[in-house]
Design brief:
The protein is mostly helical and 52 residues long. It is built from two helices and no strands. It is elongated.
């Protein structure tokens, strides 16, 4: 039986890694209070969903 290979049109792992790397660069030199402010601003802008 042969395996049929499909070409990926979307790579979720690559997207997740790119996003994680971008956030890490933006927050690498932040203090804890600066990081909390960053997270709150991202939530307000709708870039992240708050979990209650």
């Amino acid at each position: 039986m042969e395996t049929i290979k499909k070409e990926k049109t979307f790579d979720a792992v690559k997207m997740m890694r790119d996003i994680r790397d971008k956030i890490s660069l933006e927050t690498q030199d932040m203090t804890f209070s600066e990081l909390k402010e960053y997270i709150q601003s991202q939530i307000k802008q709708g870039k992240a969903k708050a979990k209650a």
